[in-house]
């Protein structure tokens, strides 16, 4: 197989953002381009929401304005990421094809006036999408300014599932391909329960709202189908472009870690280069940790290869309950964290702040306040800094630990009627990641069935759905010398959301050296004490029967008083730990200190928690999120200041990007 086309590395780190010149008179364009050059912009995304202008009537195209824009940007040396505008079909499309509108789970048909309004299963939508993508490829596939194809925009947002008649028919066909026979479907869905057995394919429908809880296996399959339907839409556009323009990379912007309706492990191989959008949770005082998680997840989806950050914000967004502005220097700290974790492009939404529309209060590179503003000053400074960091282009991050991440398990766990509403897969993943972030342990994310042999430590904070293949994979990992940490409510069901034969944690029973006889969820606000001074758990406990594991900590009180709380089991050359209650990030530190020793993971003890330190192929990116300076003992040259030293002070709120000296 020939290598996939990639962005030209000779341009260094790509810098820019979404550019929507159609919102402005053409006399503004020249000013925009001059300011882009001043800011160091070398790539912009255009056309993402321009379908109504490019195809004002079905089959009639108007490319004149885009032709002029292409030529102006090319003359300025600015590359173009050309979007296909299929996230926002024009009004004429819905007037002519009303059956393409999204129908939500309660049967409401969504109207025009937003974005993401078309059903991914609509034949009319798919035909129209391929048509506009093909027309764009024919027009611009050979243009020298074209650097990247950007298909659609944020698949799965703002809606993903559609319950229209067309979606039901497509779901039925998907099920027939998956199961082949109704007997197989009935077995997988457990339709003997509540008398749900099917005898005719035409009786199978999408899992719309019903009188009570709908069959969870049916809902899980509908989530799988939805992800696949969206992926089919991407592939149709991609292949239409590739037939005309085979040498320019094609991508779409994922939302790794924020949009959970698509299984990005399945999408990764279909793009030429992985790209992501990320926005801070503004009210989270530690939002920089969530940013790092998203960046590490994106890199992992990319298989460790560099990736592109296609959107983040210069300051506040406009769609959260409280849109907190970024503080001075936060723009650069956010950008450099993405860069350190593998991004080869640092892009924003958007270039110039919009005066009208739903996102007029969203920050931009060129804000409403204009060039006499703090944001503009920081945008220019970041562009200059990125221009000094070309040596990072194409380099990789090496991690010695992995956290298991499986969208299909999350879909299953988040359905109704689980043992406690306080169970949250994301809360446990965030807690474990935050613990390792503070400990400066580089983390990848991995699918439970992926090759884990390169990691000293693997953490499974939320593997509710665990296939037998994944369990076998984890067993081989531990036997081969790995250290595994499994949190509560893991290995409970199989791929059909059915409890494993043999009961809870059955597929990992010999790995963990125990079985869980009964769930013991806690009341709201209730805590349990462990026999380690100061350690308490909440939300959950298990009634555990030991089958070879040793007790590391026991419960002093609560429903499992006297029983094991945290265990360790030696298996082959490795070990497996089990955590049966929810510990805070701080308390996890007590446990993980011993886990790191087991794994042989070196953890620096002399660095402050709020100093972010990332290694990327011969470089160290250090970001100080604290309020005190710190001297970092790293021998090299700071590419931002030019300082050549063995020790570099990282100022409060400051950044260093150090090229390491060879020894």
Written overview of the protein:
With 663 residues, this protein is of the alpha/beta class. Among the domains are: 1-15 and 283-394, no CATH class; 401-599, Class I glutamine amidotransferase (GATase) domain (Rossmann fold), CATH 3.40.50.880; 611-660, Immunoglobulin-like (Sandwich), CATH 2.60.40. The chain is 30% helix and 19% strand. The strands form 5 sheets. The chain has a 9-stranded parallel β-sheet, covered by helices on one side. Strands 11-10-12-13-20-19-18 form a 7-stranded mixed β-sheet, sandwiched between helices. Strands 21-22-25-23-24 form a 5-stranded antiparallel β-sheet, with helices on one face. The chain starts with 13 loop residues before the first strand and ends with a strand. The model has no long low-confidence stretch (mean pLDDT 97).
